[in-house]
């Protein structure tokens, strides 16, 4: 893709290209010749809510070990300090 990108004068990273000066001038000439593309504005609609993690945070109060687990009901002991891990509720994290 990068070779084709450079061949048509697209600049920037391959994931977010922009037209270079040569391509801009070519496109401007093309628009002058054939006119602008007739269309209405594009409405993307409301932005979808980003999916949050499904993993729950569990911490050891003795050594501050943190793990994320998909289950709500666990009975875990920290091997470093022999204390039980405690689930952190969402309000404590925010």
How is the topology of this model organized?
Layout: H1 2-7, E1 10-11, E2 18-19, H2 21-34, E3 56-59, E4 66-69, E5 86-87, H3 90-93
Antiparallel strand pairs: 1-2, 3-4, 3-5
Key phrases:
3 helices; three-stranded antiparallel beta sheet; single chain; elongated; alpha+beta; 2 domains; two-stranded antiparallel sheet; 94 residues; 5 strands
Explain this structure to me?
This protein has 94 residues and is α+β, with helices and mostly antiparallel strands. It folds into 2 domains: 2-34, no CATH class; 56-93, no CATH class. Helices cover 26% and strands 15% of the residues. It has 3 helices and 5 strands, in the order αββαβββα. It has helices at residues 2-7, 21-34, 90-93; strands at 10-11, 18-19, 56-59, 66-69, 86-87. It has a 3-stranded antiparallel β-sheet, with no helix packed on it. The longest helix is centred in the first third of the chain and has 14 residues, at 21-34. It is elongated. The protein starts with a helix and ends with a helix.
Tally of DSSP helical segments: 3
What is the radius of gyration? Answer: 27 Å
Specify the overall morphology.
Answer: elongated
Spans of at least 5 consecutive residues with low confidence:
none
Order of helices and strands: HEEHEEEH
Per DSSP E runs of 2 or more residues, the count of β-strands stands at 5
Q: Can you give the mean pLDDT?
A: 87
Strand content: 5-15%
What does the main sheet amount to? 3 strands, antiparallel
Helix content: 25-40%
Structural class: alpha+beta
**Structural domain tally:** 2
The largest beta-sheet arranges its strands as 4-3-5
């Amino acid at each position: 893709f990068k070779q084709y990108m450079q061949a048509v004068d697209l600049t920037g990273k391959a994931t977010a290209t922009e037209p270079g000066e040569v391509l801009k001038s070519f496109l401007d000439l093309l628009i002058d010749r054939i006119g602008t593309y007739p269309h209405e504005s594009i409405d993307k609609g409301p932005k979808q809510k980003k999916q949050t993690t499904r993993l729950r945070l569990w911490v050891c109060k003795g050594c501050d070990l943190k793990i994320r687990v998909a289950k709500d009901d666990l009975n875990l002991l920290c091997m470093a300090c022999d204390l039980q891990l405690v689930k952190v509720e969402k309000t404590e994290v925010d």
